[in-house]
Amino acid sequence: MNDSHGMGAAIKTEPFLISRVFAAPRDLVFKAWSTADHMMRWFSPENHFVPEAEIDFRPGGVFAVCIRSNEGQDFWWRGKFIEVSPPDRLVFTSLVSFGGAAKITVDSEVTFEDEGAGTRMTLRQEGIIHDVTFTGREGAAEGWRTTLDKLEQEVARMRLAPNRSVAHGTFTIERTYDAAPAAVFHALANKEAKARWFTGGDAQTILRRDMDVRPGGREIVKGRWASGMVTLFEATYFDIVPNERLVYAYEMHLDDRKISVSLATLELKLVGKGTRLVVTEQGVFLDGYDDAGSREHGTGDLLDRLGESLKG
Which of 50, 79, 132, 228 could serve as 40's disulfide partner, Cβ 3.0–4.6 Å? Predict the structure, then answer.
């Protein structure tokens, strides 16, 4: 076999095999290979780190990782994924270069199998050495051992990390009140008037209430429920047309957890001698929080309380 890089006869390496059991499900260990963010945390041996990586996790996608020693020497792995079969098998090929010169082509196969409550990951590699002076293979076993130590740490970190996700929801609710738009607007925009209806009733103790209704102004309502759970509503107003419209964005927290960010539009229209109030919300529910329609239902209850407060 001739060396296409012009450095003499290419040499085929002996197969290299290493295996480890991780205390995590297969899909999580598999996921640790799936993004540059994950790979930068672990794909390097002891006394090395990854300053740059590009991972396009699909067949034909880019696999490119720079491994830098603590002394500043860079080893580039540049190649592509051949097979991505979650959560069972990965195959990728890489040309490893050092100092701008190609050293070795490495074909890698990674398999993931259930073992007890964990996952056995097995890495098998074969290569073609293009530079006969290259000695990097000599420390492969120890290099991969310390690399898998880092992978073990990354998998443990992933297990403890929150389940990052977003879910979107939109609803519109209408109510018609036997009150003029100015009265309804006052109930929405005045701190004392809003305190009569924007509450959880006897089941909630209000801990803080601030209200500054102007563009850029904020509203904060913090309350503790009978169960001990604390809710926090934090809003910023963006558009105000007296007696006609309010637009604000708000965050909701349950204890220390942010569960949603929403945009609310409140429109008031004169209907006879009364007012039709149209409330539209566009919400983003965060990190696995399942709203299950409770926001829409709760908003409806508050608008009913608003109606009762207008009768007083």
Answer: 50
